[in-house]
Amino acid sequence: xxxxxxxxxxxxxxxxxxxxxxxxxSGQGVNILFEEGNYAQFxxxxxxxxxxxxxxxxxxTTDVLPSYNNLSFGYKHExxxxxxxxxxxxxxxxAHVAYTNGPFTGGGADINSDALTALVQYNFGNGFxxxxxxxxxxxxxxxxxxxxxxxxxxxxxxxxxxGVAYEKPEIALRVALTYANSINSGFEGTHNVVSPxxxxxxxxxxxxxxxxxxxxxxxxxxxxxxxxxxxGFSLDTTDGNWVNFTDDTIEYTLGVGRQINDKLxxxxxxxxxxxxxxxxxxxxxxxxxxxxxGLGATYQVNEKFSVSGGLTYAMLGDQFFRTGATxxxxxxxxxxxxxxxxxxxxx
Length: 347
Prior knowledge:
By secondary structure, this protein is mainly beta. Helix content is 4%, strand content 62%.
């Protein structure tokens, strides 16, 4: 199977993580390690949610989740037949929430992150390989709620990555399991602009299982399972609790890719994440869970350069907040569109 088929399947996998729970954004994948030879890729994603809240069927809280972009870059270098190295930049976590009307007017969050992951892979020569390395994470942002306004940022803090994989190229089989430990980030900032605050936040550990196999000539079945330990994720200062997630998240994807000709490949993917606890206790979560469908395509311009595009539609799970003993704000029938573009180049 040609390189274009891998690009189409990879982009649909990457796009699905844009709807993941907690404040997951990139999925922190390491699949670039399995590209042939020396390879670089740049990926841009755009997500446009539609999330409105209502009480007793009357809409009064609109456009809660603004559109956002997400970027990543990766470079993989083949040292020899046994050793490979890779460097990945991504934006793994984020939240963009704005309550501009309704009972939560003035509340919201703008959280951004940057991560650098350095990986080494050793191939044993019998289909098995191991990979591992270090990840540096930097986070900044602000949250506004009934507690006031918190504005803070961290320096780069470190975590580790470790994984194992098995490949059988003659049938395009690959199974890869990757574990990333939690990262403790130390923040410095201000409360209501003038009062200094320092605090720590543990960004969760995660496990990614990625798989693919050929099922017919020029046809590939692929998928992934990602678990992230968002349950118990908490942001606390002396002012109180700003963020509290109560559920771990598990995201499932399954798809099929088809090589149309030497230049063009297409892929179709379904995604699912189970809904979490209702009602939520944090304004960062006006939805919970999702069901999505995505289409990806790759055009192999020449042996070195490829262009991939993807489009994903997601139905986001309903959520609600209690605003009194008998009243709630309900977020129902929420949706999101995601689009992605990836440029790949082989050296």
